[in-house]
Amino acid sequence: MVTPVPAPAPAALSGPARALQRLGLDTPLALALHLPLRYEDETRLTPLAQARAGETVQVQVSVVHSQVEQRSRRQLLLRCRDEAGDELLLRFLHFYPSQQKAWAPGTGLRVRGELRHGFFGREMVHPQVKVAEADDALPQALTPVYPASAQLPQAYLRKAVAGGLQRADLRELLPPEVVPPGLPALRAALAFLHHPPPGTPLATLEDHSHPAWQRLKYEELLAQQLSQQQARRERARLRAPELPVRPGGVRDGLLAALPWGLTDAQRRVAEEIAADIARPQPMHRLLQGDVGAGKTVVAALAAAVAIDAGWQCALMAPTEILAEQHFKKLVQWLEPLGLQVAWLSGSRKGKLRREQLAAIAEGRARLVVGTHAVIQDDVHFQRLGLAIVDEQHRFGVAQRLALRHKLRLALPDGGALEPHLLMMSATPIPRTLAMTYYADLEVSTIDQLPPGRSPIVTRVFAESRRDEVIGRIRDEVARGRQVYWVCPLVEASEAEDLTGKSMAELANVTETHAQLSETLAGIGVGLLHGRLPPADKAAVMARFAAGELAVLVATTVIEVGVDVPNASLMVIEHAERFGLAQLHQLRGRVGRGSVESVCVLLFSQPLSETGKSRLKAMAETTDGFEIARRDLELRGPGEFMGQRQSGDALLRFADLAEDAPLLAAARRHAPRLLEQQPAVAAAQVQRWLGAAAEFMKA
Ligand code: ADP
Ligand code: MG
Question: Where does the Helicase C-terminal domain lie (predicted)?
């Protein structure tokens, strides 16, 4: 009987081919841009007598004696000798009988490994071995070692990359006058980086200062600049409603009603924003300011300008708690001035929601506050003039894009009016980053805290001092103050099921709540986490804000924006699990009033050296810009860009800190290319950014 052989599925890939695909190495260009991590020099042979212990060298030897020994474990020992007669012992703990046979006495071997001085003289443990005679040719270039994976053997990857390098379209797109002098052509640069000739100073490859590396970085930075400057030009052609300040309106009413005066910094940024939205091109501005700097009132003033000009304003926040807090504050500020504020969130459904939607569509609701519910499909603004996004980095790139597209107002003449966009963030962007990624963004910075704040003192304690810390809570509450206790919890999105992990962490926050309720008998201890129904969350927050609860045990749901000035102590459990920017955000929940505030970072042992220095950094500075700088050092710029959400690292080759001169050149040359050779500019962006180009505009 003949068994039919099943035809292989056409899409079936070999293990390594699948691994290539998983790494995104599925086009010739992607392969050509997969650069070596390091190089091995197999172009030279070192006489044993000249090799030093600890050095990695390649030597040519012949096997003198081969034996398998049973010491502590079975091992193959090869005694070898080089041309000059110096001896070398090779030791293999893992070996195949076939290898033992192939490496028989008399065989010539080319051996590469780290030389040691063992009991029996010179030796190498598990070197790379090739059977080769002394007159066999040496490679003409350094051997690349690529970032690989277990399923992707180095030899396979080397072949794939070499093939990709040949097939990839690496035509020189750029006219020479937009390339800094002294840099090789793109194809030559890549050929060089994959196969550097012997004698190339490896240090310049490793620190990426070699001209071939510079060329790649320049290509990438130029593509990025082109994309951003193009986006800026496109925006300049869009129309937006002109929203000039109208004296005697809501804005002036709000300014008069505030219990305090604006800081100079607030006044300055409010003016920057007002000047922007008075123009008929859409604003695209980031308002940054440290935690507690007072961004909300600046946003409210901008909203008031839009409303005075007869337009609507939407304010969107990443969490329901934060959105609700904004809502309350804005109601408190604006309703006395005769303004209706609408509220939209995922949890408000049915009749109430329909009423709000009608008020928004008919233009009765002049200010709409909410979560991303604000950009859902059934929300239609009558005439939206200004959209404000708080804590914009917490929204995914895709959501930010959706916002810009969705809120456009179609005009009868077929054109469209784009609303002005104000984004707010407490995670400051270092200047260089703002200049590059955000070439299509204006930045306003509030660099001053409102007066009368007392600085927050940060203490780092081991978990073993927990009881002492709890005692401190009692003192604080006795003095009429309030306390946050924060537990780590990775908040899954509301739609997601509880995973085993978040279950365990949920247990953590409820357990801590139980423990503190028991230990602090007689003191009101509340519990807040993302799993509570929104109404419960709001109720707990309200009781804490009103002072009915003295202690609030919470997950990071309180991270952004929550504002209870009477809170003077924050304890963060497992502080080592948080990012620096996140700790800074959390810590910003205290020190909002004039009372002296303390933040205690509790850490669990064992704590790594980096872990220690991270917590130390938190204790040493309360300056958000400084923390952002240290964070940047630790994590790289991707995180600032919402890379986690989009999965795209936006700069692969260039390093903003090091490549300032290249960046400056790219900034300078981009306009000429955009104006004189737009097709070349488009091809450059496509080649380097591809699908990521659209993301960079968000
Ligand atoms: P953030 O910039 O972190 O969003 P908020 O807007 O929440 O800061 O402001 C923090 C606190 O400071 C709030 O209680 C706010 O009412 C108060 N505040 C804002 N501006 C001033 C000011 N100029 N003088 C005094 N208090 C202010
Ligand atoms: Mg805020």
Answer: 479-638
